[in-house]
Give the backbone structure.
Amino acid sequence: MIYLDHNATTPPAPGVVQAMLATMTDGWANASSQHPLGQQAKRALAAARASVARALGCKPSEAIFTSGATEANHLAVLGLHAAAREAGRPRIVFSAVEHAGHLALARVLAAQGVPVDFIGVRADGMLDLDEAARLIGADVGLVSLMAANNETGVLMPVADVRALAHAVGARMHVDATQFIGKAPFDFAALGVEAVSLSAHKLRGPKGIGALLLRQGVALRPQMQGSQERHRRGGTENLPAIVGFAAALDALGDVEAKAARVAHLRDALEAGLQRALPGVRVFGAGAPRVGCTSYLRFGQLPAEVVLQRLEQLGVCASSGAACSSGGSEPSHVLAAMGVPRDDALAAVRLSLGEATTARDIEYLLATLPPLLAPLLENDAAHAA
Ligand code: PMP
């Protein structure tokens, strides 16, 4: 099998499973218990937190462990909005291409009467900064923007939007789930109030992530309880936290790894475009993370291409794993103004650390012969 769906999830890094197993076997006590086993778990938790903080450039006390990015996003938006609303800043500004779960939260808030705006994107998937400047006004308490889009890989102008948010006194939250591990990241240097991430996107376990929250920023907890300094109640998932820390420790030279993957991705896109007519890459005109290729083969429906890929032993998807399988075109492509039939042809190939040059050569040798006859039919049909 060749796995080209790393934006959906990644395989565990070496050492992650062993570290988790060891914690489940020997470190299973509750970190809040006062007896020696509890104190041992508490020390393991502190060590993992310190290691996560070191890898992400935050203070240990700034990392709040959550069940993943979805929960971290909810905690950031609901928790920061509560304080902002009390300060007379009820409006929240999102981008129109946030993760589906995050947009669903925005819609729930809008239905409850919270003023919510969405910044659009240009045809290449890049955020429309003019619209951002128009929408981020004096009544805005929170701006929430992803660092890299999960479908297109387009890198969003976080620093520019942070400047707009801070100029009006609003807080800034960044969903960095598809960014961390693919490019150098440092919470302190980013200068925003809150960042979400999920361990399983960077070769850690599923069901664990974090909200990084700048020291001193008021947050209303969404789950009551004394854990995580009263910011997120619930017994800490120590095996998963230890696995998360192990995955971050294993990241190594992120820049060098990302450059290698970007080179493979570029070779893949160039090769497919040389071999087949009508191959179009979404977001190609904008800066993108190097692992992601979101493309269409003429107007061949995505399921037809995915079926051929499966035949070749390649795992890929038609877009976000959470919404693939549905017949509705991606909201990201709709926001980019992509016509419906083009959007329904979108296939996402997302590379990762395990992807090799041989994988790409194999794909370039085997996929075009399977798709070429279909594309001829497709063209004849369209003519
Ligand atoms: N945000 C982004 C940008 C994502 O890609 C994802 C995962 N697809 C999430 C949030 C949610 O992460 P999780 O499912 O781990 O909570």
